[in-house]
């Protein structure tokens, strides 16, 4: 193989590798205070896309925020602006775990009953977070992915802006 042919082969392998990584991972910039003190505004995190396997209790996940203030369990709201976008939250109960008391009203069941299959209970680390305490169970199909690590913190030096960053609350 000539030097040029080898360069083309290496370039193609790198391009395919980057494509695979971009399909499997996202780099997301945290926007908001729902996960204080764990993550602060401006932190960048690496998110493994997909929900298989399901996240474990304690994992931090990125999810599609409920489309209305009534949440996933209630009927669509005709008043007030719809909440759109992504959120970052911590998984506090997985299917089969007891329903936490602080989420029982929003989830429509008594505390201690098992979380049903296909549902999670997620809380922000900040007590005033918009989460399962407000909108109830999170359907697992609303998961974007699981946070695997913090890449940079707000206190790190600024980096060049990239098109692959998405702000989440």
From TrEMBL:
Keywords: Hydrolase, Protease. Residues 58-83, 150-169 are annotated as: Disordered. Its main location: membrane. Residues 8-97, 113-148 form the Peptidase S26 domain. InterPro entries: LexA/Signal_pep-like_sf (IPR036286), Pept_S26A_signal_pept_1 (IPR000223), Pept_S26A_signal_pept_1_Ser-AS (IPR019756), Peptidase_S26 (IPR019533). Pfam families: Peptidase_S26. SUPFAM superfamilies: LexA/Signal peptidase. It is a single-pass type II membrane protein. The keyword Protease applies. It is found in: Cell membrane. It comes from the Bacteria. Residues 156-169 have a biased composition (Basic and acidic residues). Belongs to the peptidase S26 family. This is S26 family signal peptidase. It comes from Nonomuraea corallina.
């Amino acid at each position: 193989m000539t030097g040029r042919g080898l360069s083309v082969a290496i370039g193609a392998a790198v391009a395919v590798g980057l494509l695979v990584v971009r399909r499997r991972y996202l780099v997301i910039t945290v926007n908001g205070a729902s996960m204080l003190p764990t993550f602060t505004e401006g932190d960048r995190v690496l998110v493994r896309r997909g929900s298989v396997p399901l996240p474990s209790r304690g994992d931090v996940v990125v999810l599609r925020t409920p489309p209305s203030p009534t949440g996933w369990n209630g009927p669509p709201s005709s008043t007030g602006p719809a909440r759109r976008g992504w959120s970052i939250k911590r998984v506090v109960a997985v299917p089969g775990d007891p329903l936490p008391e602080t989420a029982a009203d929003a989830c429509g069941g008594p505390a201690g009953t098992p979380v049903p299959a296909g549902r999670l209970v997620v809380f922000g680390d900040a007590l005033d977070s918009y989460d399962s305490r407000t909108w109830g169970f999170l359907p697992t199909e609303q998961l974007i992915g699981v946070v695997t690590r913090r890449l940079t913190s707000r206190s790190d030096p600024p980096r060049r802006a990239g098109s692959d960053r998405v702000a989440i609350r």
